[in-house]
Amino acid sequence: MNQLTRTTIISVLILFLALGLNAQSSISALPKSGFEKRIQNAVNAIRLIDTHEHLMSESEALASPADFSILFTNYQVSDLISSGMEQNKAFSTLKGKETKLDEKWLAAKEGWANMRTTAYGRSVLIAAKDLFGIDDLNDHTYLELSRRIQDSHTKGYYEKVLKEKSKIDACLIMEYNTSNPRDVEHEGPCNFRRFFVYDRYVSFFGYDKMNSRFGVGKKISSLKAYESFVDSIFEQDVKLCIQGAKFGVAYYRTLKFEEVPREKAEAVFEKMKANPQQLFPFEEAKPLQDYTFFRLLSLCDKYKLPIQIHTGLQTGSGNEITNANPTGLSKAFFKFPGVKFCLLHAGYPYGGEMATLAKNFPNVYIDMAWSALISPAYTKRYLQEFIETVPNNKIMAYGGDSQTVEGAYGAAVLARETVASTLIQMVRESYLTEQEALDVARKILRDNAITIYNLKSMFVK
């Protein structure tokens, strides 16, 4: 065998070996041409389940002033303040009912230039263009944009934006005022269902403050009476057909909850009662708060209600982000294996912790509401990680977390874009087949929420 022949054989062997190693690194076959467009079109066609909103009713929205500032109703004001706008000015001027339109624009103009590149800013531009035909918000367009917003705010507006433009089939609405709740169907075309927020029954630091917050008309005299009161409130809410319970206590305290003996909680209650006007430091109030939280979880367990818990970034300014680390909830997951814990907002910035919890606990689910509105890049990065680590029946990818339908629409566009982009990349890398990507898209944007949040009866004909 001459040198040329030997060299040729060795080269061919090396080529086959390289091809074999490359084939082993790919889980799926290479996709067929055009898969990107097919996946994008399929994602855009999915009828969404919106897992988390703070929408006012349509009648409330139509009764409010309508101009460009409604596009800043949600989180955009936080970015204006972060950019340097005075907080009082941001709310009193931009949100003032009596403020003239040109004054609002002058107040927001500088901050808008600074925050327009954030995802919050992108959602403003998305809504302005798609809903009102205005390509940009600037000195030359704010008046016309405001006119078109005002003209659009007529009866039937919610149906147009939510059902037709956003393609939303159901919305879960967060309800704070349980003493005066809205109708079970709320108001609107999208099969609204309510989650009641129970923070007031957990995050209290003094006796008088606790009683005034509950509005019971008389002082709660003992921990036993308080337990009976909470039980009766929860039973009343269940009769009102609530879909689940929501806790946003990470705005006020750490999510690290402990199981507390009743005697210890009772001692804290009696100490507060003996000093009714005093506000106690968190460490002293914590045992009673923890005990009450577990009491509420036991009621969720009793009535088979799923719960949502705020994790990660808190809106507004000056919050303590470490309070919202979801790992603090582990003891609750162990204690109540029958409760569905839906952890909100992809835990931003605790995405790895979120994946670990959902992977390890059968009763923990990932709800990515608000995530794409915070950061599309984070959402894509961790959605891929969630798909790689967590069973795909435990991931939900869209919730607008908005007060306005314009905000819900912008969030829906961003959520679809992040889902499609992530799945296209995973197919391109041959981690998923095209069919697997399509199946995952429908599950995380629709089917999982229907199952996890007990919405199947809404879609039975």
State the helical fraction.
40-55%
The CATH fourth-level homologous superfamily of the largest domain? Metal-dependent hydrolases
Q: So what's the overall shape?
A: globular
What value does the Rg take, in angstroms?
25 Å
Determine the N-to-C terminus distance.
77 Å
Total number of domains = 2
Reading the helices and strands in chain order gives: HHEHHHHHHHEEHHEHHEHEHEHHEHH
Strand ordering within the main sheet: 1-2-3-4-5-6-7-8
Please state the second-level CATH architecture of the largest domain: Alpha-Beta Barrel
List how many beta strands DSSP finds.
8
Estimated share of beta-strand residues:
5-15%
Number of continuous helical runs: 19
Q: Return the average pLDDT rounded to an integer.
A: 91
Identify the CATH class of the largest domain.
Alpha Beta
The profile of the biggest β sheet is: 8 strands, parallel
CATH third-tier fold name of the largest domain: TIM Barrel
SS content category: alpha/beta
Could you name the ranges where pLDDT drops below 50 across 5 or more consecutive residues? 12-25, 179-187
Structure summary:
This protein has 461 residues and is of the alpha/beta class.
What does this structure look like?
- This protein has 19 helices and 8 strands.
- The protein is an alpha/beta fold and 461 residues long.
- 43% of the residues are buried.
- Strands 1-2-3-4-5-6-7-8 form an 8-stranded parallel beta sheet, with helices on both faces.
- The chain folds into 2 domains: 67-152; 157-459, TIM Barrel, CATH 3.20.20.140.
- It is globular.
